[in-house]
Each structure stands twice: as C-alpha cells, then as structure tokens.
Amino acid sequence: MTTADSSFVTALATLEVPQRVRESAVSTLGAFFESLCGVDRATLGQDHINPSRYLCNIEALEAIVPLKGKKLLEIGSGYGISLALMLQKFQVDAVGVEPASQGFSESFVCSKAVLEANQLDVSRIIDACGENLPFADASFDVVYSNNVLEHTTSPEEVLSEALRVLKPGGTLYIEVPNYLACYEGHYMIPQPPILWRGLLPAWVKWVYRRDPEFARTLRTQINPVWLRRTLRRLGRRYPVHISTLGEEDFLARLANPFTFQTEALRKNSSAKIKALQMLNRGNWLGHLIVCLQGHYPIRLIATRLPR
C-alpha cells in the first residue's frame, strides 16, 4: 500500500460524514454538474465529500508550512470536509467561511453537520464571503482556499482581504483553475485559452452543446498573468512574495504516473491524459505548456512581507 493509499484509508476510517450530507452532495452538486460534464451524479457527489481528495491538498500545504497550532483561515469551506480534517488530523486552530446568506446555505448547513458528527466546534464555520472577511488585520498564520476564487464576485477583492487578514510572514495557499490552460475542469472539456469573458460560454454552447449559463458565472480572467499583476498592485498595500504558481507540481505530475484525485476525473479524462503523457517524452510538452503559462491548476503559494 502506498503512502497516499494509507492516508486515504486513515481519513476514511476517522472522519464521519453523515448520511444526510452524502445524500445532499449527490442530489445538489452531483445533479447540477451531471448535465455539465456527463459524469453520473452519484460519482460526482461521492467525489465532493471524499476525504482523500482534501487530504492530498492539506498534506501539500503541510509540506510547505507545519500546520500544528497555526491559526488558519479557509476561504470557501464548502461541505466542511477539509476544515474537519485540518481540525481533527492536523491540530490546526482553523476557521472557515462559507456564504450561507449568498446562496450557499446548503453547503453551510452540511459543513456544520460534518463538524458536529466529528465532535468539532460548529462555530468554526462562519457565514461570510471572501470579499468581506469578519476578522481583524493580521489575524492568521495561513490563509487557504481550494477551487473557490473562480466562483467569487470579485477575485481581486478576495485576494486583498486574504492578504489583509494574513500576518506578515504568513503563508497564502490558493488553488484555482488556470483559464490560459487548454482544459476546463467544471465541464471536463478541452478548451482554447480564454482571452475574453464571452469565449468560454460560446465554446461550451456551440462546440459541446451544453448549457453555458454556469460558464458565464466563472471568473475566467484568472490566469498566471492576471495573478502576478493583481498581487503586484495589491502589494502596494500588502507587500507579498510569490514563491510559485504551481509550475513545478504540474511538470512533476505530467512526467510521472498520474494520480487522479477524483473518480469523475478518472472516468472522464484517463484516456486523454494517457495519450498526452505518451507524447510527452522528456517532458518537452510540459515545459512548453509552462512556457505558455497554460499549466493546470494554478497553485499560488505566497508570503506576506513586513512593510
């Protein structure tokens, strides 16, 4: 058994996910994305509450900054699986925000249920949005967010708030899709690099004959160029150093046997990734993609600097 498999088994054995939460994941998120990506709702729902999916990302964060005892904020806690793992397995002093009053009431309720089922403090989930965090300046050692920024009203305001509440010397870790990449993860389809807002909805509608309404909600301006420019601008108020945008991780994943974090991705994309890796002798294709700033996803790791 590999280390990853062992972590997966441990997470499943120790984290309780109530049946009501499992059913919600299938009937809400699973049902919604089934028509967008063509994967069955049961698989999508199970993926969304699968602890191993979140454990991999937390372990990647732990490799950067030891988490035990750190004050951590998760922006966009979703169904609470990630926050519960941080509290239970990593002894992090963590809180999460999920905007129940802005249309995410189901995930907010489910996140509370997950914490309660695992004897964790339900008050650690707070009804708030990333654009207006209810915390004092320099409150957290770590600010973490996973595939949330593209769904916000204003990604720049979320980044500004994240840096505001981060302590000088603290770590910002954000995973987000790269819309200069040739892959769209919500619809699970190839795409051209998105250079203007209307391109993705048109691509989804006319090439794949799928509903473009969800595509219109995505913040497709997010890419490495936009992130560097935005953080440079925000750095006038909150100085920040970018360690990486995830290029090295992308190259390593492409050059080695591919590990799928979700069953939906394995079902939808395993043949495509296998073909891509066969073409990628010596990782030349990976290096070309990175040179064109099309790696996927973006993993922003940055440090807030003292003024």
Total helices: the number is 13
Name the CATH architecture: 3-Layer(aba) Sandwich
Instruction: Give the strand order of the largest sheet, numbering strands 1, 2, ... along the chain.
Output: 3-2-1-4-5-9-8
Radius of gyration: 19 Å
Largest sheet: 7 strands, mixed
Shape: globular
Structural class, please?
Answer: alpha/beta
Give the CATH superfamily. Vaccinia Virus protein VP39
Distance between the termini: 47 Å
Mean pLDDT: 93
CATH classification, class level: Alpha Beta
What order do the SSEs take from the amino end to the carboxyl end, as H and E? HHHHEHEHEEHEEEHHHEHHHE
Low confidence ranges: 1-13
Task: Give an account of the 3D structure.
The protein contains 13 helices and 9 strands. It has 307 residues and is α/β, with parallel strands linked by helices. It has one domain (3-304): 3-Layer(aba) Sandwich (Rossmann fold), CATH 3.40.50. The strands form 2 sheets. Strands 3-2-1-4-5-9-8 form a 7-stranded mixed beta sheet, with helices on both faces. Helix 4 packs across helix 5. It is globular.
Describe how the helices and strands are arranged.
Elements: H1 3-14, H2 19-37, H3 41-48, H4 51-64, E1 71-75, H5 81-89, E2 93-97, H6 105-117, E3 125-126, E4 140-146, H7 155-165, E5 166-176, E6 183-184, E7 189-190, H8 199-208, H9 213-217, H10 224-234, E8 240-244, H11 247-255, H12 263-279, H13 284-291, E9 298-304
Parallel strand pairs: 1-2, 1-4, 2-3, 4-5
Antiparallel strand pairs: 5-9, 6-7, 8-9
Helix pairs in contact: 1-4, 2-3, 4-5
